[in-house]
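Re: that chain you flagged

S.,

Sorry for the slow reply, it's been a week of failed gels. I finally had a moment to sit down with the sequence you sent. For the record, here it is as I used it:
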Amino acid sequence: MKVLLVHNPTAGGGRASRLAAEVAARLGGDGVEVDRHQTRSLEDARLAACQAAGSVDAVVAVGGDGTVGACAAGLADAAPGPGGPGVRAALGVVPAGGGNDAARSLGLPVGDPLAAAALLPRLRRRPADLASVAGRAYLNVAGAGFDSEVNRIANQRLGWAGNRPRYVGAVLTELAVGRTARFRLTLDGQASEPRGWLVAVANGPSYGGGMRVAPQASMDDGLLEVVVIHDIGKLEFLRTFPKVFSGRHLEHPAVAVHRAARVELDADRPLAVYADGEPAGTLPATFEVHPAAITVLAADPAPGFPPAG
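Prediction finished late last night. Pasting the C-alpha cells below so you have them in one place:
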C-alpha cells in the first residue's frame, strides 16, 4: 500500500504537524509506503490530492474537516472523463483537528489519531457522495442561520476553548442576540418559505464536533438530508439544543427533515453559509450532491453509511 499524507500544520493548534511523523512511522511499521505533503492552504491540499490521485492507494488527510474536505475535492476533481485512466486513491482520515466529524462519519476513533492511522490498511474501500455549495466541496454538513453564526463565533472569538465548550459557548452567545429568519427553500424544484432558526444541508450525520444534526444522513444514497428548525422561543430552543448530540432533537415537532438532490436556499437577509466548519459565502446558495464522487476508507459499520431501510 502506498499513501500520501496531507497534513495541515495549523490544525488542532499544531497537533497535525506534530502527528505527521508519528503517523508515517506507524504506517511504515505495517509495510505502508508513505510520502508526506505539508499544506500551505486548503487549495494547496486540494491540488496535492488531485495530483496524487492516480499514483497512490490513498490520500490521507491528517488534520481537521477543512483539510479532509479539500482532499476529497481534489480526488473528485481527478475523476476522469470517458475513457480516462481512473482514480486509484481513496480518501483516508487521521483526525487531528477541532471537530473531526469526517472521522466520526467514517467510524474512526476520534480521540486517538494514531489508532485511526493503524486502522487505515484494514479499512473498507467504499464509494461516497460528495456535496458542494458555492464551489466548496464538503463531506458532512453545510448550512445557514443560527448554526453558521455559531461557527463564526466559535472560530473567530472562542478559538482558545476546547472543541465542545467552544461550540456550546458560541450557541449561548448567539442565542442571546440571534433571531429567526424567513427562508426561501427549494427542494428539487418544490418551494416553501419556512420561518426558522436554521437550515442544515447534510451529506453526513454530524458537525460542530459531534452534533448529530442529521443522524440518518447517508453518504452513499445520492441525496442530501435537509434539517429545518422552525420558529420556536429561545427558552425552548435552549432546552432542545443539548439533544442534538444524541440526535433526539428530531423528536421535537418544530424540527422537520426533508431529502433532495438539489437544494436552493435564500433568506430575508444575507446570512453566512458554512460548510464543514469553513466559510462558504452568503445566501442565496445552491447545494448539490455528487453521487459516488470519491472512494473513502471507512470502518464497517460507520455512522455515515447507515444500513438501508
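What I noticed first: The two ends are 35 Å apart (CA to CA).

Talk soon,
D.
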